[in-house]
Design brief:
CATH architecture: 3-Layer(aba) Sandwich
Distance between the termini: 50 Å
Radius of gyration: 17 Å
Family: Belongs to the short-chain dehydrogenases/reductases (SDR) family.
Helix content: 40-55%
Strand order of the largest sheet: 3-2-1-4-5-6-7
Largest sheet: 7 strands, parallel
Keywords: NAD, Oxidoreductase
CATH superfamily: NAD(P)-binding Rossmann-like Domain
Number of helices: 10
Order of helices and strands: EHEHEHEHHEHEHHHEH
Bound molecules: nicotinamide-adenine-dinucleotide
Protein name: SDR family oxidoreductase
CATH topology: Rossmann fold
CATH class: Alpha Beta
InterPro entries: NAD(P)-bd_dom_sf, Sc_DH/Rdtase_CS, SDR_DHRS6-like, SDR_fam
Shape: globular
GO molecular function, one term: oxidoreductase activity
Length: about 250
């Protein structure tokens, strides 16, 4: 039986765990060939095994997404191998730890580091992979956050800038038939998220949702698959929220 992503190539950054790993599995179930990248080699091995278990194939690539020369070397290799790339899912990012601080705790070097990782690297990678994305009339998907609507931390600022970057990228790439969207997740349970937040903070943020349900990595991965599918073809230059209404309360508090 044919699957929705048979003969399609999907590149996911930050695929060594959490939302990136779960998305890899869901795309694999739909028949996609995965190209998985991360700085975490062990996590990538685990993801590759899960992709295989889901009945598909992948390659794995360990590199630092903040290093422009490594981005370019990866893109050159992968575009030479795949003339058409259907999806670039820019999921890698820093969300926990010192990135959740703001004015008094951050010097210029740190600000630039997190902007480089969360905001600029998605654009650099997309630009470097432009030829194969263009050949496929593919989709670029940036992983934003509901924190982008209340940028009270470095993290929120980098994701707010990523929303703007998404619109700017769409303005450029759409002429080549490439759609560009972002997903803004709410609080979704991932190992990094559980470890990065105290139980009290997790419960408090979850308690701001309008819908009293638990957010999972599958909720985000399902949305990514939909946006990348034929059914999502009319959605371009947008930030799609997936947060059970959380952002509304975050604004009000
Ligand atoms: N889980 C949530 O509740 C949530 C909510 C909103 C947004 N997000 C966003 O979703 C994405 C994934 O979050 P997650 O919860 O799965 O966390 P995670 O830490 O498991 O995922 C981030 C991945 O990015 C990789 N990475 C970090 N720096 C890198 C670098 N320099 N080069 C290459 N790879 C690097 C990490 O190794 C990790 O595998 C992040 O962009 C995060 O901001 C998550």
């Amino acid at each position: 039986m044919s699957k929705r992503f048979d003969n399609k190539v999907v590149v996911i950054t930050g695929a060594g765990g959490g939302l990136g790993q779960t998305s890899a599995v869901l795309f694999a179930r739909e028949g996609a060939h995965l190209v998985l990248t991360d700085i975490n080699e062990e996590g990538l091995k685990e993801s590759a095994a899960l992709v295989e278990e889901a009945g598909s194939t992948c390659s794995t690539h360990v590199f630092d997404i903040m290093d422009e020369s490594e981005i370019e070397a990866f893109a050159k290799e992968i575009c030479a191998k795949h003339d058409k790339i259907d999806v670039l899912y820019n999921n890698a990012g820093a969300a926990y730890g010192e990135v959740t601080k703001m004015v008094d705790d951050m010097n210029q070097e740190k600000w630039l580091r997190y902007l480089s990782l969360n905001t600029v690297s998605p654009m650099l990678l997309a630009r470097a992979m432009r030829s194969s994305l263009s050949n496929a009339k593919g989709l670029i998907l940036n992983q934003s956050s509901m924190a982008s609507y209340a940028p009270a931390t470095v993290y929120g600022v980098t994701k707010a800038a990523l929303n703007s970057m998404t619109y700017g990228m769409a303005n450029v790439f759409s002429a080549e038939g490439i759609r560009v969207n972002a997903i803004a997740p709410g609080i979704m349970e991932t190992p990094a998220n559980k470890e990065g937040l105290t139980a009290e903070t997790y419960a408090r943020v979850q308690g701001m949702q309008l819908s009293d349900i638990h957010g999972t990595a599958e909720d985000i991965a399902n949305l990514a698959v939909f946006l990348a599918s034929e059914e999502g073809r009319f959605i371009n230059c947008d930030v799609i929220n997936c947060d059970a209404g959380n952002r509304l309360r975050a604004w009000r508090n």
